[in-house]
Request: fold
Amino acid sequence: METPPYNYAIVRSFIVWSILWGVVAVLVGVLISFQLVEPALNLPPYLTYGRLRPLHTNAGIYGWGIGSFFALFYYMVQRLCRTPLWSDGLARFQLWLFNATIITAAVTLLLGYTTSKEYHELEWPVDIMVVVLWVVFSVNIIMTIVRRREEQMYISLWYMMAALVGVAVLYLVNAAEVPVSLFKSYSAYAGTNDANVQWWFGHNAVAMVLTAPPLAVFYYFLPKSTGVPIFSHRISIIAFWSLVFMYLWTGAHHLLWTPVPDWVQTLAMAFSIMLIAPSWGSVFNGYLSMNGQWHQMRENYLVKFLILGITFYGLQTLQGPSQAIRTFSAFIHYTEWVPGHVHMGAMGWVSMVLFAAIYYLVPRLYDRELYSIPLANLHFWLVLIGQLVYSVSMWIAGLQQAGMWHALNSDGSLTYTFMETLVEMYPYWWIRAIGGVIYLAGVLVFIYNLVRTARSGKPAADAVAA
Amino acid sequence: MDWASVLYLGVTGGLLAVFILIVLRTCGKRNRSRLEEPKHRMLDDD
Reply:
């Protein structure tokens, strides 16, 4: 069969920009981790923790995460549908709009313009840019799928479509707001309803941005990297529909012990526990796909990233439902345990899978052999150690913090003041900051390896001949 | 039970029914080999 003229230029461009925003996210993350232990590093009004923290999360989730998914979706959809993109022009427009949106978001957040909704801080003009961006992307992907030359759709395409539809619905509903000036608006919802909608959005953003797209990537790049198919396509389909059916009910587990109706909290708790099944369906499918191939964990650096990534997904989807149980939530909610959990997902699961996919693609997109496999292995160990240092230190800190908050004297008064519990956090915050520096070093090794590959890597044809 | 609750339960039940149908169809012997084909086809695109 003749190979269609796939558009790889847009894939390359999105990879470059997403990595740039990824570096911004990690750099700002490291900076704010040091600001917590050294308050003099806060430079008011623009470079304080309060303004930099949303810049860190937005650059990480929307710049690095979604930027990479734009690249990888455009690559996968063409290959899986065996047809070129529906519109190259629309994709180029999307690239410019993406960068304009991220830059506008960064500037407005540093200027202090925020809705104050976590993970949805952007004010209404930026919201409009995000919506246009997503519509353009969705139309291009869906129209490409409509024109596919493959009768059946591989599981990655299902996850991609779920992400497109899911993000659109979540973002539009949570963005309902009343503008009162160019950069100020108020939510269309009030009180408890506002909180409920916000965390319906917040937790399902985890589903539709940080679960469905990385699973699409994992299901595509694991078999591509090992050379053998996934264990069961049917299990992946059942896991997909289970995930889609169950996820949208779980947001209220962020609001346990609040004025949100008790039955809503219980429903969210029950569905959160049920989610273990589809999540681990994908984890087992990944592990069973390695039957007879486990030696590749030693020999193939891509497999290391992917298998550690899916392992962290498995751990994340056990820890998350545990946290959704009322009694456990009462203990660890609002403590340092939570950032430990979130960063295992972001630095372990999502980023590990993205690193593997980008390592797989860059040599093919530039028609070069990877510059250095030892450097890729060094990158792997640095980000693994950095992430573990971060998460484990925060889990221990969270347990100590929770224990101190809950400690009571015999007369029922609190054993510790809040300031005493805060001072106890300093050693852990130092360790977390060091973990961030190790992770940043890994990311810099990754970028160096990719730049050398693109600029001076051995041409792939020569490498084959040799 | 008010109409909002009836609607809520109805939508939930409807979604559950659709989900069960998808699972039954996916697990059925009739579709077994056909539904496994994409995992082999995706490796042939290079």
Residues 1-188 of chain A form a domain with the Cytochrome C Oxidase; Chain A fold (CATH 1.20.210.10). The two ends of chain A are 29 Å apart (CA to CA).
